[in-house]
Amino acid sequence: MPIICGCRRRSIRPLCNPITLPWRKAITTRTLLPSVPPWSGRQTVKEPTKRHQIMSSKTGKVGVIGLGNMGGGIARNLSKAGYQVHVYDISDRALKPFRKKATICEPTEMAAKCSVIFFVVHGSKEIEELLSGRNGMLSAVRRNLVLYDLTTSDPDNTKRLARKTARKNVTYMDAGMTGGAVGADKGTLSLMIGGDKKAYKRTRKYLTPFTEQLFHVGKSGAGHTLKLIFNMVVHTNFLAVCEAGHIAKKAGIDLNDMIDVFNAGNARSYISEQRFPNHILSGTWDGRSSVYNLHKDLGMAMTMVAKFGTTAKLGKNTHAYLKRAVKFGMSEKDFTRLYQIFGEIT
Q1: CA distances for 143 relative to 14, 99, 105, 107, 223, angstroms
Q2: Closest CA relative to residue 296, chosen from 17, 11, 90, 12
Q3: What is the pLDDT at residue 345?
Q4: What is the pLDDT of residue 58?
Q5: What is the CA radius of gyration of the chain?
Q6: With contact defined as beta carbons under 8 Å apart, do 229 and 303 qualify?
Q7: Is the pLDDT reported for residue 14 higher than 60?
Q8: At the fourth CATH level, which superfamily is domain 225-345?
Q9: How far apart are CA 76 and CA 74, in angstroms?
Q10: Which numeric CATH code is attached to 51-218?
């Protein structure tokens, strides 16, 4: 039976980012590769291992904090894989599907019991609130606990939290996700991971149930840095295809025809191959993330770029458009609906 602790709950906003899988093939954790493919340059993925080998030893307990579109799928896949899953969310509705599948407990108790905990919440602010204070997660932690921050966050905040947890002998890993809510449901996410490589190798078996590709890209903060760059490209590409669609419409060209042509040539991308056919042309408008999230991501990316002392003119234009969309009242709307109102706020 699940355990429900009596401690006071903290407010958490579940994570739901419009992150997407790149359309090109990449190194996967499920296949053995004889050599590094010529396009990969420096190999960032640890040596590929067959999934059944990684999954052969399900020892230890794992926690998931935040059961939104992303965290819910991650927790379900960990449970299906046979792990002892502990979950927490402020929403009773989000917890309900897990009452027979997992142990429901407060974050502080989770930190004392679990070997690995995944944060799938809004961002660094919520994580710091959970960690801090007399009754925070760091007040009583299990030895060698590893925390994975699966949010999209400012790398400077990530590194600061890593230093804070290190004082309690807790390892803090940042892992930007790509694959979206569908990938979380199917267990096919990709992670760009920053932090201690030994901790990554030791805990990789806990990542396998919900991922297909793993990239260790550097020290603490590197995963979140790359995620902001990644999202800047994804969101800019999405708006570029939206703009193209409106231009085609003015010229009397059907959007379906434009997308078919794009996908037959070098203009193709995940946006044209998946996002438009499945969520816009279908009329479902269900990308499962809000305009707010895109605006947040680009805001953090622009702040990061400024700290580097460089420029990102295309990214800046994307951020400006998203800012106008928020002022237009689109903040909580599904981001795919940006196509509908693109001409009104450009």
Answers
A1: 27, 27, 19, 16, 24
A2: 17
A3: 86
A4: 61
A5: 20
A6: no
A7: no
A8: N-(1-d-carboxylethyl)-l-norvaline Dehydrogenase; domain 2 (1.10.1040.10)
A9: 6
A10: 3.40.50.720
* Cα–Cα distance for residue pair 127/123, rounded to 1 Å: 7
Q: What type of residue sits at position 299?
A: G
Residue 258, both tokens: 């434009």
Alpha-carbon span 218 to 197, nearest angstrom: 8
Report phi then psi at 233, rounded to 5. Answer: -70, -45
pLDDT in tens, 36-63: 344 444 444 443 434 444 444 466 799 9
Domains 51-218 and 225-345 share a fold: no
Structural tokens at position 273: 């191959």
How many CB atoms lie under 10 A from the CB of residue 32?
9
Give the C-alpha separation, 208 to 133, whole Å: 32
Q: State how far the Cα of 248 lies from the Cα of 271, in Å rounded to an integer.
A: 16
Distance in angstroms (rounded) separating the CA atoms of residues 90 and 74: 17
What ranges do the domains of the chain cover?
Answer: 51-218, 225-345
278-312: b (≥16 Cβ within 10 Å) or e: ebbeeeeeebbbbbbbbbbbbebbbebbeeeeeeb
Give the pLDDT confidence of 297-309 residue by residue, as tens digits. Answer: 999 999 999 999 9
β-partners of residue 259 are none
Look at 12-16, 17-21, 66-70 and tell me which has the smallest mean pLDDT: 17-21
Structure tokens at 76: 């379900």
User: To 5 degrees, how large is the angle CA 35–CA 40–CA 42?
Assistant: 90
Ranges 10-14, 204-208, 233-237: which has the least confidence: 10-14
Token reading at 179: 């694959």
CA distance 225 to 149: 13
